[in-house]
Amino acid sequence: RCFACTHSDEQAPILVYCPEPIYESIARNEEAVTWREPEFIDNVKVVKVESSKKSGDTFQIGSTNVEYTAFDDAGNLVRCSFVVNLKRKSFYTKDLFTLVCLNVVC
Prior knowledge:
By secondary structure, the protein is mainly β. Helices cover 9% and strands 44% of the residues. The chain has a four-stranded mixed beta sheet with strand order 2-8-7-5, with no helix packed on it. The longest helix is centred in the last third of the chain and has 10 residues, at 94-103.
């Protein structure tokens, strides 16, 4: 029998799901981007999840690293990271080219 036993949790949380990199073409300089939230489990309990960005936040043109960190009660942690890549949408189309060429010698 153990009356004053202590057990230490040395097992980090487990990453169940982490988003793949996100690639989007946008018409403006910034855009709100959404994704499925990462999922974590733990042998005891995940007590806190921190993130550098949230789903629905506004992102600028370019690449942004997003990191989530999950902690259990013992301070063990696991990370999920992915990149949000936004580029400007190209408006050049054949129809636009034809319209321009009707008014100018191409």
